[in-house]
Amino acid sequence: MDIKAADVGKLRKMTGAGMMDCKKALVEANGDFDRAQEIIREKGKLVASKRADRTATEGVVVGRIIGTKGYMLCLACETDFVAINEGFTATAESIMEVAIANDCADMDALLACTLGDVTIADAITEKSGQTGEKVELPFYARVEAAMCHCYVHTNKKLGTLIGFNTEVAETVAHDVAMQATAMAPIAIDKEDCSPELVDKERQIGREQARLDGKPEAMLDKIAEGKLNKFYADATLLNQPFVKNNKQTIRQYIQTEVKDATVVAFKRFSLSD
Q1: Which CATH number fits domain 5-50: 1.10.600.10, 3.40.50.150, 1.10.8.10, 1.10.10.10?
Q2: pLDDT tier at 150, thresholds 50, 70, 90
């Protein structure tokens, strides 16, 4: 049947699919727009299935602070060509709007919400059909604290959400979020490290000291010293502040506001 360009344009606006895909869908559906949309969605599922074993290492991280809550997510794809497309970023921002509107607590809650007339999970599958690439949502987080701050790096591939127990200066919040993004701590403080990890690091310290020929009676003391070095490297509040390594992050924060501290921390990087 004869398919008008205006109808193709209308379907493209409704689905975001390419012009040729829209025309083919309308031809197959004999001009029925509802059926054409179903065909395009079915194509998206087929593309997603075929590319399930691919690696999505490009994409965009977006974050938003709403009052005392912070939200951050990543929409990933296979190539930078797709990632830098305005439509791809717009989809990530649309998903973020849904997350905020529904105050989604976790990934499962977000994927079950709707974007338009489909779930977020199905919308991501449709995006795979539109781009011809694997598209996925590898990360979503929400934090709630007296003050929240989000930093997304300029390449949009990594970012951090930070929550503080009280109001601090924006410059301080920004510095701490940038530090966490750059230095990739595994926990906020010593107490947040799992006992299993602490025991493992302590044992590594003992074995290193033993291999260095240190006396057996000194092994425990040396291991504790190495454990403190681990905390300084791996926990945010104990890391040296990159702008002034004579201060830890804890000291930097509390120089500005006494007793202020970090109570929530979420970091994501597409390259990790």
Answers
A1: 1.10.8.10
A2: very high
